[in-house]
Amino acid sequence: MIKETPKMHVGASDLKAAGIRHLPLDITNGKNTQNHPRFFQPFQEELPLPENEGKLLEFEPHLDRIMWETRDMELFLTKHFYKCGRYAALKYPHNPPPSGGYREIGDYKFGQLLEATGFNWYAVSVTDYWTGNYPHFKVMLESDAIGDENKLLRGEIMTITDIMAARLRTKSLRPHIVAPILVVSLMGPRHARVLEADYDGKTLNIRASKLYDFTKKNTDAAQLLTRYWLGGACGQTEMEPS
After folding, report:
1. pTM of the entire structure?
2. Taking burial as the number of CB atoms within 10 A of a residue's CB, which of 15, 69, 107, 240 is the most buried?
3. 152 neighbors 141 (Cβ within 8 angstroms)
4. Ramachandran bin of 130, using left for φ above 0, alpha for ψ from -120 to 50, beta for the remaining angles
């Protein structure tokens, strides 16, 4: 259904027809709000601040070259995720980040996770958990689209559904009936948001945060994205005993 939509931004009628519910997500206040994440927790320990944040601001965003902007954001964030992960593993040996290590997308049977004809988006980085047989998964995505807080993107939805389907077919994860996905989604002009998705058996729920603006210095947003990339899993994913 979503593959048939003619635009990068997916409208409410198409979401309804596909059985998708678009909900708000607040990643700033933890469990103090009804819109908090259900399946992912931020890493709470102190982390170093990002380096070279000013490099993102050297030039104005190119609206006709959005993938250049998302690539710059991806490099900036990936370097910071790696730096913070190394720092935290050494400083907190008894409470290291449970997630955030680089994984090869090809190690999983997700398919290509991209489109390059007519639509331009692709998954650039994935991670899961060091220990434990968690179905939870994280992915960083780049899309050649201007962000709209009221609409989900074609690439966001297709990435979520392709990964979720593959995770639930994984032999070691068969006890789980929910495979939550966390997406760090990068888009134009130079913006990012976090999505949390789960399928409840009837509806695909996709909770989307506000757009975070990286056309200006935004250290708080960079730290917030890092905490979720490194953070833990939570929530009920196995069938509850009757």
Report:
1. 0.95
2. 69
3. no
4. alpha
